[in-house]
Design brief:
The protein is an all-alpha fold and about 210 residues long. The chain has five helices and two strands; from the N terminus they run αββαααα. It has one domain.
């Protein structure tokens, strides 16, 4: 399982599934093979969850910095004209109201940078995807234990073994689907941001 993106994850290795190897499904070895399968699925899910938990922290920090900075600049832009009138002396103003435009431009730039690098959106995506995989893992563990109890002592219940394998397959597909969906969202957002930047560069008057 590899999300396959470079710019967004260059500081964090991609999510990769481990090697499962060849398992022996003869009745006398099926129980042991099921344990290997179970551990493989749990380890893969745990790696994905840990990846999203780790990767979302720097996104959250940068998102908060850019957004708080933008909020402060908007507040400054709103206050400067008032301060200019309060501290104005006749025709001269100690605080030039034009600085409000500068503060507003800084706020817009901070928001644009946040959107370009995808800090806020990535934070939300990583948190949502990590929680979804964690929830799926909890359900998988419960279902696995429920049907594992139906195995005979030698693990020869073919129906239960088949169901457990289908359960593992379904969860792995669900997990891969969540990662692929999150990756597709990132790609779409990145493309949309590039399109907006190119449009603004070609039409600076309209963008302002």
């Amino acid at each position: 399982m590899n999300s396959g993106r470079q710019p967004d994850k260059r500081n964090t290795p991609d999510i990769r599934a481990g090697e499962l190897g060849t398992l022996d499904w003869e009745p006398e070895h099926s129980r042991q093979s099921l344990e290997v399968m179970y551990q493989y699925v749990v380890d893969s899910a745990t790696e994905a969850i840990n990846w999203y938990l780790t990767a979302r922290r720097p996104k959250r920090r940068w998102a908060q910095r850019f957004r708080v900075g933008a909020i402060l600049m908007v507040a400054v832009a709103g206050v400067l004209p008032v301060l200019s009138q309060i501290f104005g002396n006749g025709r001269s103003a100690i605080i030039q109201p034009a600085w409000a435009t500068v503060a507003l431009a800084i706020a817009i730039t901070l928001i644009a940078l946040d959107r370009f690098f995808g800090f806020s959106s990535a934070w939300a995506r990583y948190m949502t995807t990590g929680q979804a995989i964690s929830s799926g893992l909890n359900q998988f563990r419960i279902e696995w234990q429920k049907y594992k109890s139906q195995l005979s002592s030698d693990g020869s219940s073919s129906k239960s073994v088949e169901y457990l394998l289908d359960l593992a397959k379904s969860f792995v597909l669900q997990m891969d689907g969540l990662v692929q969906e999150e990756t597709a969202q990132w790609v779409n957002e990145f493309r949309e941001t590039l399109t907006e930047i190119e449009r603004s560069a070609h039409n600076p008057a309209k963008s302002s």
